[in-house]
Amino acid sequence: MNFKQTRNVSLILVFGLLAPMLDTTMTNIAISDIGRDLHTTLSSVQWIITAYVLATSIAVPFSGWLTQHFNGKYVFLVAQLFFGLSSIGAALSHDINALIIYRVVQGFAAGLIIPLVTTMLVSVAPREYLQKLMMVVMLPIIVGPIFGPVIGAFVVEYGNWQWIFWINVPIMLLAAALNYWKVPDIPATNRAAKIDAIGIALLGLGSAAIIYGLSQAGEKATFNNADTWTYVGLGLLAVVIYLFWG
User: Which residue windows are transmembrane per the record (predicted)?
Assistant: First the structure.
């Protein structure tokens, strides 16, 4: 692929990354509106943020195994479709439990999409273009969480919280269509590779425990509580074991 073709593919990949990165923070601004409409407590509503981040951290280790066994282009496509469908479910949710479930699916899909973008770019980009294009890919990872609350505030001000999820749908449909038609196949790298279930479990659960522990610190407005120290400690222990595993 020449530079123009590779640049176009990288822009398509970046576009597919946009909604998952915005969604890491865009819902923060709608917490009070969601709680009021769904008649639930603030602590319950905060789980739509925690559940998304936890599911993302658990999914990330799976992406490497999936690209070893399946065409990376279609793994990316399926993850995009699941993100879009779960966004529809979240927008249509009438109780907090359903919304949290759809946010888990969203987060898991995002956890596949985020590392797949860099994996796919490395697979298709010539070495001489890779550094420049990698900087383009990093842009939504950096600015997405920053602009998320700004966009969320605009949406809630002039619409309602459901539109925070509805706007994901056309973005992901267009991103999936562009991925299908324009991104080249990314062949499986090693179909014979066995899944490192213990390694994935250690990394995924370790990351999830750390994030949950930190969320408890935010909820209780202090790091000096048993839940934070316990979960962060267990999470760090799991990550250290993972580093020496195998």
Answer: 48-67, 74-94, 100-121, 133-155, 161-181, 193-214, 226-245
Give start and end residues of each alpha helix (H) in 2-95: 3-22, 31-37, 42-45, 47-69, 72-91
DSSP letter assigned to residue 193: P
- Domain that includes residue 231, residue range: 196-246
- Tell me how far apart the alpha carbons of residues 158 and 80 are, in angstroms, rounded to a whole number: 27
Same domain, residue pair 22 and 105: yes
Answer yes or no: are the C-beta atoms of 161 and 169 closer than 8 Å.
no
Tokens for 217?
A: 């610190």
Q: Is the pLDDT of residue 69 over 70?
A: yes
C-alpha–C-alpha distance, residues 91 and 165, integer Å: 5
Q: Which amino acid is at 17?
A: L
pTM: 0.85
114 and 143 together in one domain = yes
> Do residue 181 and residue 93 come from a single domain?
yes
Do residues 199 and 61 lie in contact, with contact meaning Cβ atoms separated by under 8 Å?
yes
Final residue of a domain: which of 154, 178, 194? 194
User: pLDDT tier at 87 (50, 70, 90 boundaries)?
Assistant: very high
Number of domains the chain contains: 2
Place of tokens 């993850």: 79
